[in-house]
Structure formats: C-alpha cells, structure tokens
Amino acid sequence: MSVEETIVEIKKELRANMNGVASARMREAGLNYHVNFGIDLPRLQEIARQFTPSHELAQQLWHENVRESKILAGLLMPVERFWPDVADIWVEQMPNAEIAQLTVMNLFSRLPYASDKAFEWMGHSDEMFQLCGFLLITRLLMQGAVLTERSRNEVLDQANSLQESPNLHLRKAVLNAIARIDQTKDDLAKRENR
Known about the structure:
Number of domains: 2
Strand content: under 5%
Number of strands: 0
Structural class: mainly alpha
Helix content: 55-70%
C-alpha cells in the first residue's frame, strides 16, 4: 500500500472513531486545531498498531493540520530514521502543549539522542523548545535515566530561570522536572543506605 493509500485508510479510521463531545470540550478548553476528531490516546494507539511505521508516512501525517494526524505521526515514526535536525523542525512546528507532551512521550523519549536534545532544548530561547526540553528530561528520568551532579545542576539552573515564566505549560513542565529530580535523588539515597 502506498503512503497516499495508507493516509486514506487512516482518515477512514479517524472518521469512524470521531468523538464530537470530546472535540467540543477540547475547543472549549482552548485547544484549537484545524480538524480535531476528539479521539483519545488509547484508541489512537490501537489505530497506529494497524499500520507499519514509516518515515514517509509519519512525515506526511505530521504536515496535516489535524490533531490526530500529528499524534499518529509520533506513534508511527521509526526512531532510527528520525534525525536530530528533523526533531528540531518538528518542535518549531509544534502547535501546542498537548502535541508537545504526546510527541515527547511517543517519539522523542525513545530517540538515542534524547538526552542531548533535552539539554539543548531546555537552554533554547523559544518557549516551545524549552517546554519540549523539560518534558523530555522528565520523561527520561521516569524511564530510569540517572543524571550526573553536573547535569542535575544544569537542569536546576535552567529551571530556576524559568519558574516565573508566564507560560503555564512551561512552568508546570519545569516544576515536574524539579519534582522528578528530587524523587530520583531520594530514590538513589534510599538505595545507597540499604
């Protein structure tokens, strides 16, 4: 099946699973998309499993101005074909915090260079890059990554400079990263005291 045929099949699945109530609630909450089918993440994960991951397919889905297409792009992108410069482009094109959170969880956190990108993005001047950086470092810590003292201090320095950000999503991501660092530090101390 060609990429175009696969996109047609995906769009059929999206229409068949549309949730108008959820879509309306998202709009009321300020999540404005050109098209939003209101499909929840577990169902989107089921839809993604029906299709073979493909760089070309994921890129085409990413460029659709449709909430579910962007989420599926992160689920269907093979990590071995997702280059660091393309990751930067995706962050530049990130429409909102919801897509940032889901793309970090579904794709960025699985990249072999995820840690490098997390630190690079946290220090970026753009808020979306900063948001993705803090979301990513938190996700990596949740997956068991351990920071050196120097890295931990770098994250905390970046976090301290952004704690008063007017961007609510960024502030929340910063606080979550700090909390995860504290929890990881406590967990390590408990293990060492055993």
